[in-house]
Amino acid sequence: MGKQLGVLAMYMNKRHLEELSFFRKLCIIGERLGLEVLIFTPDDVHQNGTMIHTLTYRGTERRWVRKWSKFPPIIYDRCRYHGAVNFRKLSHFRKKYTKLRYISKPLANKWKMHQLLSEHPGIAPHLPATIRYREPRELGDFLKKHAVVYMKPKSGTGGRGIIRLQRVGGIPALLMQGRDPARRIIPARKITVEQIPLRLAGWKLNERYIVQQGIPLELKDGRVHDFRMLVQKDGDGEWQVTGCAGRIGPRQSVTSNLHGGGTAVAMETLLKKRFSSEQKVSEIRNEAYELGLRIALHLEKKFGPFCEAGLDLAVDPKGHVWLLEVNPKPSREVFNRIGEKETYRRAISRPLEYALWLIR
Ligand SMILES: Nc1ncnc2c1ncn2[C@@H]1O[C@H](COP(=O)(O)OP(=O)(O)OP(=O)(O)O)[C@@H](O)[C@H]1O
Ligand SMILES: [Mg+2]
Fold it and tell me: What is the rounded CA–CA span in Å between residue 296 and residue 335?
């Protein structure tokens, strides 16, 4: 039997797969590398888990084909959170098929992640101060220490339900802006810390939210920015930084996510705009790269082997590098958007090369 990699996906409404174009590229590059990529969802498992009805793209024939297959030994899990029904199906699948080797998996929520990363003395100085949300008074105290804070759901994605609070004038006057859980922009308005539970009623602040020191990321034109770094295992099983790209949020937005209307730019371009000396730019870049690798190695110690992570990084006006968030199932479109074709290609081929290395 040839070498195979299973890609675990999820049907959205009408049996539509979320990342079909990425999957197609995986299949094409896999074919060239001698690895057959088989895409399936928990709904495609039949005959008591012995056979799966998979989907694969044949690059040479330029078409999608359905194919019956046994379970591939290695699984690349690409499922993101899409509602409770899907989530239950997935947890059921992961629990039932524990013998399979997963090269990507959910890691930890933002709070747990903060705690795990704080343990490492080489990572801790790069983490914004973070607490769990409990009550307005504690939030008020946190705001005395930090002029800007971000409130984020522990398990949120895509910039949904993220609020920025900014001290204006004397406490308790705050400027609140952000995005609601449907990612709609909440325009800036003044508020007191005591009014927050009522204003955000139904957001389940106590159960779901963390509060994080805000890193100043406004560019001259008022838009915010940050960086997305992709760290991946290569074909020798070693961690590498595949690439890093800048993201600039749209006007009136306190988040930079591409899905929220952000624009992608090359890391160098963005850093050069903010820091005049070449040397400073390369120092920052090196620091970010070293930090990325340190984080990947530390997470692997905690969670076991996996193939990649997307790191949201911020660089403050002094040039200090901060880690905002770790994404265990990162998209790689940002490199395509900035025209870094080689980085983009490598971002797709690396998980395949890593899988081949594991098989060997
Ligand atoms: N502490 C912070 N200081 C400044 N900006 C922040 C901070 N936390 C988040 N942001 C902004 O909000 C954006 C979204 O935050 P974060 O990445 O933590 O959550 P998310 O986008 O919802 O998760 P995902 O990346 O999985 O989609 C960041 O990319 C950044 O632009
Ligand atoms: Mg993010």
Answer: 20
